[in-house]
Specification:
The structure is a homodimer. By secondary structure, the first copy, chain A, is an alpha+beta fold. Chain A has 2 domains: about 150 residues, Creatinase/prolidase N-terminal domain (Creatine Amidinohydrolase, Chain A, domain 1, 3-Layer(aba) Sandwich); about 220 residues, Creatinase/methionine aminopeptidase superfamily (Creatine Amidinohydrolase), CATH 3.90.230. Chain A is about 35% helix and about 20% strand. Chain A contains 11 helices and 18 strands. Chain A is globular and about 70 Å long. The two termini of chain A are about 35 Å apart. The interface between A and B is large, with 72 and 72 residues. Chains A, B: It holds the Pfam family Creatinase_N. Chains A, B: This is Aminopeptidase P family protein.
Chain lengths: ~375, ~375
């Protein structure tokens, strides 16, 4: 089992790399407000972010350690990290939820980076942001999305070890599905049983679980489960993001409940082969678009209008980059990716297939045990 | 067990009430971008929001049903709701992630409401928001926080039934803690066992679980658990937000592992009494501040610098209002609240205590079975 947390050297290296890129861009600081960005640079790790009540901020200065501007309730935990400069207020305070502290901290700066592009959001009230901007008229704000996303996309050995660990846990949970996904079992009960299995196998949490089961195949992969019992002829899919020490796996498995239709068997074969094409194409120097193209070619015209065929994975269930025609990001050693082709078939049905890999010199390494090459049958 | 989902009449009523308040404010529409706000008015319920990749929008027009502007992947699920007007794009598209669709939809309006105050955020890239604003120079944006938060704070009978159901599930899970929180059990294992118990008892998910265990008492209530084994003399606290059909409980329990110190016993007594004072004060017409004052008086000078002593509860773990000195919101029948006093004691220790209630005519109704009046001892 990997060690929880990271040595301080990991945070020093992340911060130094960010500051190098900030210097190239002439940024005197970078303001962070989301859970993953704050945790990446500080190690501050808590479920408390689930409450929308309190904003949390970190300023990455041009040199030196991150500066935390956080609610008082978080100070003891932040003190256990490598951060020294911790400024706090008794949140919640609707009149001044950290805004004065931010203004004071940022007022010496003239050029600030902020992640404000694709796949970002600012986790503070827009009215507070507007007030802060008005109080700092000389402060130029630059989009720093590529810095945070670019750094986080390349995982360290320690990060990869955590992701590999949770992928192995997820795989052991998936291997138990044939024991409880039996004819007559309600789908919401199958979801509960999967969550319990993943916890038993060592997951800290099972934040994400979607799936479907329907006769001949499923048509929707984002609905919550209902109590409909599994029936012979169903295709069952479960797609789970389990987490361990704040790092995710994200992969799925398909099963036939009783003998499947030929169409479902063929869809599974097509997806398995397309997944392999994606894995084989994942070499440093190839681009995300190359991986997309390799999978799309393998799927052939049957691929339909697919937006992307995989994505980055790590501290969040989905991260940059996207395996999509629009993403020309070159692959690099240390990128953890989901390989996730999908296929429409039959009368409005679809099938999805997903594995997790890490890009390295030479062929990519699978973090998930490869799904069975033929659609597995339960019962 | 309550029924999953809501009849269309519930969404019609929510929308009509919002539109009434919008009319009073002269708002021609209200733009929503967060999971809970979108679900509240549409019934769109999916774990897919956990991926930060895609933005999702709903416009509440001055009259008629909500209009959805969402990624294509969500269309089949949105079609199962009462929403008719669904506009979609093949997200993710970094060049235009719904922005053109929003501009087209909003261009006829001159006055738009947006939740942008305390406890809100805008779930879309700030750069996209800025681009949209620039394309709609005639559009005035007004803070509509009080409309969404005000409506959501008063729960319907159907919502209260769901919260009562998950509170009962959480209580059954808490009642099993003495079976697995034994001397020598590592705290992270206790967390896993609690999550499994809650799932077994019928929770859909256990998104939130914090807690602590330490000799004589704990000092921090937001850290993740470590593998330190429980020892005689520890005070253990678990605080959990389990969910069922998208509604939360949020309460905690304390236990002594072996005989507790007198200081811990006294802290527990003080908190139990302060909790009772809060429950007793919760009558329609009293304000949130009155509840805060009742608990603060009961805690006496021992209360320390406490920011708030409870909050709203429902589709999110924490919602408006706040039981705090700054919150003059009058209590009204249908408000579901956590009563959550905390107490510093000893040498940097603290204790927390939390129950869930619903405000109604006459005395408030407990949704959680009242904690034992004396600190329960395990072993």
């Amino acid at each position: 089992m990997p060690t929880r947390g990271f040595p301080t050297a990991e945070y020093e290296a992340r911060t130094a790399r960010a500051q190098e890129r900030m210097a190239e861009r002439g940024l005197e600081g970078m303001l962070l407000s989301t859970e993953a960005d704050v945790r990446y640079f500080t190690g501050f790790h808590t479920a408390f972010w689930q409450s929308p009540t309190r904003p949390w901020f970190v300023l990455l200065p041009a040199a030196g350690k991150p500066v935390a501007v956080i609610p008082e309730i978080g100070v003891p935990l932040m003190r256990t990290t490598w951060v020294d400069d911790i400024r706090s207020w008794p949140a919640p305070d609707p009149d001044d939820d950290g805004v004065s502290l931010l203004i004071e901290l940022l007022s010496p700066l003239s050029r600030l980076g902020l992640p404000m592009g694709h796949e970002t959001h600012l986790r503070m009230p827009l009215a507070d942001w507007t007030r802060m901007r008005a109080a700092l008229p000389g402060l130029e704000i630059e989009d720093a999305t590529e810095i945070t996303q670019g750094l986080r996309a390349i995982k360290s050995e320690a990060e990869i070890a955590k992701i590999a660990h949770i992928c192995a846990i997820g795989a052991r949970a998936f291997s138990q599905v044939p024991e409880f996904a039996l004819t007559g079992a309600p789908l919401d009960g199958v979801f509960r049983a999967f969550r319990r299995a993943a916890l038993t196998e060592g997951a800290d949490e099972v934040p994400y679980l979607v799936g479907a089961a329907a006769q001949g195949g499923y048509a929707d992969v984002i609905s919550p489960p209902d109590a409909q019992p599994l029936a012979t002829g169903d295709i069952l899919m479960l797609d789970s993001g389990c987490s361990w020490d704040g790092y995710f796996c994200d992969f799925d498995r398909n099963w036939a409940i009783g003998p499947p239709t030929d169409a479902a068997r063929r869809a599974y074969d097509t997806l398995w082969t397309a997944t392999q094409a994606g894995i084989d194409a994942a070499r440093p120097g190839a681009t995300c678009r190359d991986l997309y193209d390799a999978m799309a070619r393998s799927l052939g015209t049957s691929g339909g209008n697919v937006g992307r065929l995989g994505h980055g994975l790590g501290m969040q269930l989905t991260e940059q980059p996207s395996l999509a025609a629009f993403d020309e990001t070159p692959l690099a050693a240390g990128m953890v990716l989901t390989i996730e082709p999908s296929l429409p078939y039959g009368d409005g049905l679809m099938m999805v297939h997903e594995e997790n890999i890490v890009v390295q010199d030479g062929p990519a390494a699978l973090l998930t045990p490869r799904a069975e090459p033929e659609l597995p049958v339960i019962g």
